[in-house]
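Example (one chain per record):
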Amino acid sequence: MKICLPFIVLLFFVSFNRSEAQTFTSTKNGAWNSADTWTASNLCSPSFSSPPPTEGYYPQCPIDIVIAHSVTFSGNSAFGAGYFRSITVKAGGTLRFNNDFVLSTGGSQYTMKVSVENGGKIEVLNGSFKFQRNALVDIQSGGIVSVKTLEGGGGNGGTLEVKSGGTFSSSSLINLNNGLRLKIAGTLNANKLTSQGDGNEIQVFGEGKFNASSDVNINGLPFTASEQSAIKIGGDLTVTNSGDSRLYIKGNSNFQVTGKTSIANLFQAGDNSIVILSKDVAISGSGAALLEVKNQGEVLINGNLTKQQWSGGITVQNSGQLVICGGPSGAESGLYPPTSYANMNIAPSPAFYGGCRIMPVDFVYFNATLDGPGRKANLAWTTAKEWQNSHFEIERSVDNIQSWEAIGEVSGNGFTDSPTSYHFTDSNLPTHGGRVFYRLKQVNFDETSSYSITQAIQVEALAGQMNWAAYPNPTDGTQFRLELKNQSLAKDSPIYVMLSTTWGQQELFQARSIDEINASLQASLTQKISGIYVIKVMWGEASETLKIIKN
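Predicted structure:
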């Protein structure tokens, strides 16, 4: 018998390189350390028995975990180190930790990956979620991760990626260290954020949202906000002079700080970004300290701007606008460094740098308040004196500060040195609710104009007023449709629809058009069993819930 040597070599090569792994899949709600919680697909020799181990060194048989139920891990955890390759939490699945959740790939040839799919959850409500050695956490659309503390660990800290429609929340602290990177296209909610060490990074992009209720410390890392992102900081913002401390605000992003701002490195606002700093801003004596506004970036400081005479820098270029307002009403100028100071690089008009005298009138105040029972907004303002004041145009924008429309007009007093009070009532509030912004456009007799500060109220959705219709209802799914009854409420933003069962299963759909959403719903509902389903529609900042019957 003749033997073909190349065939034997090929067979040996394939056998030697066969990728072996072992998958543990949840079969019911239960504890991680209970063998009854799992079923195992054994491809390794030798293989592991249930429950799946989390620590140890055996890279020849990586472990993959798939969770579609509620699984609780008690005690301390450390995943990786030669065993673990992935954890996937699917729709309806929850992985809950009573203490810390530690990802470590030390000594392993695999990058530890955690995926939270649509409808999946990970909860570390009483402990820390720790990244070590380049682990990757991928929160997909509809996925939710809730922790007490997030922090990096040894080695290369890894990446947390929150995709559009995904949510990550930390109730206590986010501590970026040892190369922990945040990539946010969905929503990140935090209490306080700080950082230390090198290699950390924050990127907020797409329509990502970064919300911090307390202080944010940018120390040794670049923070970039781009595209349509929105950043809100409820406490103080500090950009230190350590390492790569940089803040880049660009695209059409919106950046707001409620507390004070301290700049000891680069703070750059460009493109069409809007930055509102609600209290005093201090530029330190560091040689790298620079507040830079360029292109069409707009920075409004509702306080004073300070820097030392010979150190720190301010740059306003192209069509950049750096406006410093102060006082209780925000309508008069705040203090700011003169252009004769060192490191002042101010371009000529249309660039602007200087104090805030927004209108050719002296304002005492401008307020907007909500009359809940009457469902109307009351606007009131008082001037101390006026000069060439023809009239005020009242402008409103719903759910953003870009889509302004004129809703009324109030005549001015022309020339006066006496206090004058004005008021206007908006009785046509949006039925779907949301954040409603108001500003005054002051118009002179020569038709030149300028704008006031912006005020806002929060409006609840009108009870019993439904903007969306679902039909036919009951339905078998084949012809089912959602319809927006008032097309003027349509927004140039994605539509999210959550389809939920009465027993807790959820599906999240996302599209740019109602037709795409309807196609997805029809495909899903036709496969569903009979029963009652809940549909939650989310568009812009508004949401609405409907019930349907599948027959």
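Caption: Residues 1-18 have pLDDT under 50 and may be disordered.
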